[in-house]
Structures are given as structure tokens and as C-alpha cells.
Design a protein that fits this description.
24 strands; Dipeptide-binding Protein, domain 3; 651 residues; single chain; globular
């Protein structure tokens, strides 16, 4: 069986489209190496850290500045290492044995969101279960076939060594690595991959990614322990991109011997006595409670034995602590209690950087203190509810929002506006350029109260004696904007702007805001878009009528606007089977789709999302930064293991 090799996205796409005739040539290629556990100061940001000797140099798509090491601490001497947080008395242990002692300077302490300062999901380690998120721990336990770093623009074969499509893109052969075991000793094999994809196909909308598998997967078969052959219902040129880990997107491969026969919507995959959750990765859960989750490094890891990484991660313990508020997080950084956290608001991270010089950001101590994430923000309105089912009302609200003021007041100038629900990453810019004329006609960033008033009048509303817009029955145009802590800076600004234009708008952050949003019981909400990185298809898919409010999908890969348009869906279905190499056809499809989307404006564009993540260099260096951009810097994303493989102890 041949082994396929690629590194850059361009090379990846080229090899993905080849037919069986190329197999003899590809058989001579060795598997590509992934980032190692030690930093490579001489590498460019678009390269992985030093690969194994048998790996060819990685190509780059554009020159980039030479990376630098994380800044050396310039403040007072580092605090004496202390032990990592110990389980609290009220906590329930996740293992029979008491967690071993690990010094502070070998522990990575993270502060991640909980529910009112608690982890209500501490027993949920199945990433498909309703209520589970890979973002606060489970993502570490289910390794992918491939990782993709959008910032390095590179794919890293992981559990897989390569793949090949048939010439019609309706069959895919994937070669897996041998010698990999789950942590309970059961061999990892093609049976696990085939089982996962077939189960998702059958489950459909019941679980995350089920509807995607149902659309494409006809059958996945394990031909032998290291070979999976997938037959598709139709051409599936993006299957590897879709299943690979990048940002919050990626299909988790689960152990067949544990998940078979389980109800994935409710199965916890948590049983300390059995060593659950099992994993192929270098981590094990040793403690979990409402107050903290503790994950320790295992004794060995197949990736080291295989030469994929040079040595085990330097981090010996990962501690997740729930964040109760930004003030708490800021104080923890200033006193070196934590190493990283959820991204902070500009005013907060600026305070942290000024108070503790050992804390850095993606852009050092300079604005905007972060990078442009894949998650541009919109004011979502529920398109299945009146009056938001009327495009005139949606456009009126858009015209009432002054995005320059949102950035200057809400973000203290450390931000930028968003025209479309996908980021302005380099691979996406040709598509932005293709709809430039449409955006002149349908300017999603235009602040024009007069146009907004005209639209509301067209929708049958008028201003009452108190200056508030009302419908024919005298009911006020009410826009109760929901959000959570990450929108605490711009949420009140947006609501106040709408209020000044006569809209009965409010902003609130109830504990169930996320539930209301994903279940479609909301009227208006601030949220982002987990969609496109390389081409517009994944973002366009977010507006498919048949995928409105898919269960278990959260805010990624699902139609949360509840917008439906019968003219739009067929164009997106065309895009689904168009190879990424056929740029001309994709651009034509995108233009036709946006000619439907823009007049309707399913959700109201606000700003680009920046990850303003503080990185504490007191105990750990080689964090991803603008000058060392080996991957995006969010530990809650599925690419977190690439960061763990690169972090180095500072003392």
C-alpha cells in the first residue's frame, strides 16, 4: 500500500485530487513529520519545528519574518515554583489513586470558562455527548488523522500517513500508522475510523457532524488494520479537510470497543475504575470536579516511538480552572497563578501586560494584542421569528449600527470591522475580491440611519410618539440581544446604538444564553461563525436551510440564523462537489450564492474576532506568536496538542 506525503496546503490539494495512476510515484514518498516537542528557532513561521531526518523540507506559500523566541522575563525574579493546585475536599476524584505531586514549573495551568465559575460537565469526556465540548479537555484524548495549522498553512499527517482519492472523488483510501494502541492496550486500527464514520452516518442530526457524514458517507470499510476505504454518495473533495483538526472543526475518532452499542448523545466515556476516557495521545485524566480538571502526561506515547516527535511534551500536568470573570483572570496572571486563559477584552489584557512584563500576547505588548480568528462576529437574529423573518428589518438593524464606534469604544480601537461571515485569510481573499461590486450595492458595514428608517417603513413599521418603532398593532420593535462574557465589551455598545435609533434593544448575559442560541429559542444574539478557512464552502454551508439548528453542533458548522432560501441551497450543493483546485468554478458559485445571500442578509455583520490571549512566560516559553506562528494560539481549539508539543520550560 503506498504512503502519500505532503506538507503545504497547495501540495495537499494537489495530492488529494490525483487518481490511482499516480500511486506508483507516491509509493516512494515517506510520511511527513509533524512539529516536534522541541523548538526550532531557525524555522520560518510557515514551517514546522525541525522534522525528522527522513523528511523533505517543507514548502511555503509566502515568505514570512524569522521567528523569535518568547521574550525573556524582564520583571522581578520568577516566583519560586510551587505545586500545582491540589484537588479540593469537595471534589470527586477521576481516578482511584491520589494524583502524584507535580512541581509548578512543570504544570500548565489554564483558566477556561465554566458555568458560573463551575464545571458542570466534569464527567463528560465523550465529545459527541450533548452538553460536552472538546474545548475544555476532551479534545486532548481523541487524536485526529491530520492536523492543519492555518497560520503555517500546513497539514500534518498524524494517525494517518496519507490518502488517495479515486479520479471521480467518490472513493477515498486512507493509510493509517501501525503500532498505535489505545491507553487500555487495545490496538487502534482502521476499524475505529470506519466505525466512527458509519455511526455518524446513521445517527445523522442526532449528534455533532452526523449530518455531514450522512450527506457524504455511503460506507466506510476497514480493508486491513491500517487501511480504510470510504465510498461516498457523491464526490467529496473536502473530506480530509473536514475531518482534520483545525480550530474547532474536526471529526473525533472514537474507540470502537468502548463506543459500540452506546447512545452517543448521553454516553459519558467516564469511568475512573476502567481508565476512561481512553486515548491514543500522551495524556490521562487523573482528577475531575466542578472546581478543576487535572490531566497528566502518560509514561509513553506512540508518536515518540514512531519518530513523529522527538520527545515527550515537557508539560507534565495540565490543570483546567473555571473562570468566573475577567477580573479574576487578570489577577491570576499578574500574580503568576496561571499560564494562559480564555481571550481577554482589550482593556483587560492591556492591564495584564502592563502589570506583569512576563505576560505576552500574539503581538507582544502592542495593540491589537491578538490575531484574527476564524470566527467573525455577527448580530444574529432568528430568521424564523417575526419580524426578523423580514429582510427589510434585518437590513434596517444593520444600517443602525456604527461599526467604527463599536471598534473604537468597545475594543478601544484594537479591532476591525467584518464585511462577510468569514475571515480575511489569504486563501479567501480572491473570493472577497469577486464580490466587491456586490458589496458596494449591499454594503454590510454601512452606517446609515436614514436608510434604516426607510427599510422599517417598508416593513410596515412607524415611529410612535415616544420615538420608538412599532408595528401596525402598536407593538415595539424589540431586540433583546443575548451574549456571554466575551461580548461584554461590544454588546452594550450595539444595544445602545439600536436604542438611539428607536429600537427597544437590550443586552444581557443569562447563564443559558448559549442554550437559547443553539436551540433557536432566541430572538437576537451576538456570536461568531465557525466556517471557512481555505474556501467559502464551509461558511456557505452555515446557511443551508436543511441544517437549521442541528442538534449538538453548538455554534460551529450549523445554521444558527435559521434562515432558509430555496435558491441558495442548490448553489452550495454545487460547491460541495467542486474541487478546491477549480478556483474559477468556485468563484462563480460563490458569486451566485452571495447574490442570494446579500439581499436577504441572514445575519448582521459586526466585527472580526481577535484572540487576545495572554501567555505567561514565567514557567513556559515558545508560545505561538506573530513572530513564531506555527499554529493559532487558542488552547481550546483542537490544535492545542501542537502547542503542547512545542512549549518549553523557562526554569
Amino acid at each position: 500500500m503506498p504512503v502519500w506525503k505532503f506538507t503545504t496546503r497547495r501540495e495537499f490539494l494537489r495530492l488529494s485530487a490525483i487518481g490511482a495512476a499516480s500511486a506508483a510515484i507516491l509509493a516512494a514518498c515517506a510520511p511527513a513529520a509533524a512539529p516536534t516537542a522541541t523548538p526550532a528557532p531557525a524555522a520560518k513561521p510557515t514551517e514546522a519545528p525541525k522534522p525528522a531526518a527522513t523528511t523533505a523540507p517543507a514548502a511555503t506559500t509566502a515568505p514570512a519574518p524569522k521567528p523569535t523566541e518568547a521574550p525573556k522575563p524582564t520583571a522581578a525574579p520568577a516566583a519560586k515554583p510551587t505545586e500545582a493546585p491540589k484537588p479540593t475536599a469537595a471534589a470527586q476524584p477521576a481516578a482511584a489513586a491520589k494524583p502524584k505531586e507535580v512541581p509548578r514549573n512543570r504544570s500548565l495551568i489554564l483558566m477556561w470558562s465554566g458555568t458560573q465559575g463551575k464545571y458542570t460537565d466534569f464527567e463528560l469526556w465523550n465529545p459527541y455527548a450533548i452538553g460536552t465540548s472538546h474545548q475544555n479537555g476532551p479534545g486532548l484524548f481523541y487524536e485526529p488523522l491530520y492536523y492543519y495549522s492555518a497560520f503555517a498553512d500546513k497539514y500534518y499527517p498524524w494517525l494517518a500517513t496519507g490518502h488517495e482519492f479515486s479520479s471521480d472523488l467518490k472513493q477515498l483510501t486512507i493509510k493509517l500508522r501501525s503500532g498505535i494502541n489505545w491507553s487500555d492496550g487495545t490496538p487502534f486500527s482502521a476499524e475505529d475510523v470506519a466505525f466512527t464514520w458509519n455511526f455518524l452516518r446513521d445517527a445523522g442530526a442526532k449528534v455533532k457532524w452526523g449530518i455531514n457524514c450522512q450527506e457524504f458517507v455511503k460506507e466506510a470499510k476497514a480493508v486491513d488494520p491500517t487501511t480504510v476505504v470510504v465510498t461516498f454518495n457523491k464526490p467529496a473533495p473536502r473530506w480530509i479537510q473536514f475531518t482534520s483538526y483545525k480550530y474547532d472543526i474536526g471529526v473525533y475518532i472514537v474507540p470502537k470497543h468502548i463506543f459500540q452499542g452506546q447512545d452517543w448523545t448521553a454516553f459519558k466515556a467516564y469511568d475512573p475504575a476502567k481508565g476512561w476516557p481512553v486515548t491514543t495521545g500522551p495524556w490521562k485524566l487523573v482528577f475531575a470536579s466542578q472546581d478543576q480538571k487535572i490531566i497528566d502526561r502518560r509514561d509513553d506515547w506512540w508518536a515518540v516511538k514512531a519518530g513523529l516527535v522527538q520527545k515527550m511534551p515537557a508539560v507534565e500536568r495540565i490543570v483546567y480552572l473555571p473562570i468566573a470573570g475577567e477580573t479574576q483572570a487578570a489577577q491570576a496572571f499578574i500574580t503568576n497563578q496561571i499560564d494562559c486563559s480564555l481571550d481577554l477584552r482589550p482593556v483587560t489584557i492591556k492591564q495584564v501586560l502592563q502589570s506583569n512584563p512576563k505576560v505576552i500576547s500574539w503581538t507582544g505588548n502592542q495593540s491589537p494584542y491578538g490575531y484574527t480568528d476564524w470566527w467573525p462576529t455577527s448580530l444574529y437574529v432568528n430568521c424564523q421569528k417575526a419580524p426578523f423573518d423580514n429582510p427589510d428589518v434585518r437590513w434596517a438593524l444593520s444600517y443602525f449600527i456604527d461599526r467604527d464606534q463599536v471598534v473604537s469604544v468597545g475594543y478601544q480601537g484594537a479591532g476591525s470591522k467584518s464585511q462577510l461571515p468569514m475571515p480575511k485569510y489569504k486563501p479567501l481573499m480572491p473570493f472577497y475580491d469577486a464580490v466587491a461590486d456586490l458589496l458596494k450595492t449591499y454594503d454590510t458595514n454601512e452606517f446609515n440611519p436614514a436608510k434604516g428608517a426607510d427599510r422599517l417603513q417598508k416593513a410596515g413599521l412607524k415611529k410612535g410618539s415616544d420615538g420608538m418603532w412599532v408595528d401596525a398593532q402598536g407593538k415595539k420593535l424589540t431586540v433583546p440581544v443575548l451574549g456571554w462574557q466575551v461580548f461584554a465589551d461590544i454588546g452594550p455598545v450595539v444595544a445602545e446604538q439600536l436604542k438611539k435609533q428607536g429600537v427597544d434593544a437590550t443586552y444581557s448575559m443569562p447563564p443559558d444564553a448559549s442554550t437559547q442560541f443553539t436551540q433557536g429559542t432566541f430572538s437576537a444574539a451576538l456570536s461568531g461563525h465557525g466556517g471557512s478557512i481555505e474556501d467559502p464552502y464551509e461558511t456557505m454551508r452555515l446557511y443551508l436551510g436543511r441544517e437549521a439548528g442541528v442538534a449538538g453542533a453548538g455554534s460551529h458548522g450549523v445554521n444558527n440564523s435559521w434562515w432558509r432560501n430555496d435558491k441558495f441551497d442548490p448553489i452550495v450543493d454545487e460547491m460541495a462537489v467542486t474541487p478546491l483546485e477549480d478556483k474559477a468554478k468556485l468563484i462563480d458559485e460563490f458569486k451566485r450564492a452571495m447574490a442570494v445571500w446579500l439581499p436577504d442578509l441572514p445575519d448582521i455583520q459586526i466585527t472580526e474576532w481577535y484572540h487576545r490571549i495572554p501567555y505567561n512566560t514565567t514557567y513556559w516559553t515558545n508560545w505561538p506568536t506573530r513572530d513564531n506562528a506555527y499554529v493559532n494560539g487558542a488552547f481550546w481549539h483542537l490544535t492545542f496538542p501542537l502547542i503542547l508539543n512545542n512549549l518549553q520550560p523557562a526554569q
